[in-house]
Design brief:
The chain is mainly α. The protein has one domain (about 25-95). About 85% of the residues lie in helices and about 0% in strands. The protein is built from five helices and no strands. The longest helix has 30 residues, at about 65-95. The chain is rod-shaped and about 55 Å long.
Length: about 100
Amino acid sequence: MNAALFLLVTASGSRSALLAFVSPTLATEIAMRVAALATLLGVWLCWSSPTHRMSREKQAKDGLITAAEARRQVRCRSRLGPALVIAGLLALGWACGI
């Protein structure tokens, strides 16, 4: 892409004009990689959830954080993992055309 055109497009703030220079296959590949990373991150969050819960319980017992804060962190992480897995799989299906 021409550097002057790139600067002109980005200076005008037109995202659609900038996206016109990205090929559909490149956009699909980027979407697939982001979706795969989101899915893997969600799986890791699900697998590490018991360890995270134990460490938060220990911190609450030692008085480093409050019990309410420990519950909030555990609840947030226990919801984020499955949500990322589902969103990542849906995005992978969309990017693959399924």
